[in-house]
Design brief:
This protein is an alpha+beta fold and 190 residues long. Helices cover 36% and strands 15% of the residues. The chain binds flavin mononucleotide. Residues 16-17, 19, 70, 124-128 line the site of flavin mononucleotide.
């Protein structure tokens, strides 16, 4: 056990998605910290094919919400994680064959969610949205495709606490999804 793990573990463990936000704005400084976490995320071949669009204008967020069934009601900020197809072409990354880029998007999304949580902010990724609708609402250029909307905001203190289904917190343990040495192999003794 290192000091770093002692610090990181509770951050990873306590992060949960937040879907109800208070009206307080998210500062530029906090958003830049969240973006910095994306900057340092794992990236296949270090290709860096993502482009983030930060949106805080409430009217624009409302428009995006109209074509995004997965979105919460009026988050104060959105980071739209886009894939840059022009850069992919330049680097000869074949997006139709190369699944690694989807992992890059996930890695950036996870780093950002953890950074937000460490800053005291709530976040929730959204993939349930109309690609063409979001493209139109945000006037995205042809070479950028929206892949994830990361909602950011301060947790609404008046929102009821999230109720976990009975047993949900213990439902999924490390041993549920891990085999050792061969599929089905048990964990070694401690
Ligand atoms: C790729 C991806 C897409 C998601 N899309 C949505 C979404 O459209 N709307 C939403 O409310 N939550 C979305 N979520 C959040 C998950 O529902 C959430 O992470 C899951 O229920 C586990 O909750 P926890 O992160 O608090 O442990 C998404 C999560 C991931 C990883």
């Amino acid at each position: 056990m290192t000091e770093q793990w002692t610090t990181l573990r509770p951050i990873i463990r306590s992060r949960r998605v937040v879907r109800t936000y208070g009206p307080q704005p998210v500062t530029t400084e906090d958003i830049r910290s969240v973006l910095e976490a994306a900057r340092w995320a794992l990236a296949a071949g270090n290709a860096r094919l993502l482009h983030c669009l930060v949106v805080r204008d409430p009217a624009t967020i409302e428009l995006v919400g109209k074509v995004s069934p997965g979105m919460s009601r009026q988050p104060p900020a959105l980071v739209v994680i886009c894939l840059d197809h022009a850069r992919a072409r330049d680097l000869r990354v074949q997006l139709e064959r190369d699944t690694a880029v989807w992992m890059d998007i996930g890695a950036a999304m996870m780093n950002m969610s953890l950074a937000a949580h460490a800053l005291g902010l709530g976040s929730c990724p959204v993939t349930s949205f109309s690609r063409s609708g979001v493209r139109t609402m945000l006037d995205l250029p042809e070479h950028l495709s929206p892949e994830v909307l990361l909602q950011l905001g301060w947790r609404d203190p008046d929102a009821p606490a999230r109720v976990l289904r009975p047993g949900a917190s213990t439902r999924y343990t490390v041993d549920d999804f891990t085999s050792w040495e061969r599929i089905g192999g048990p964990p070694p003794p401690e």
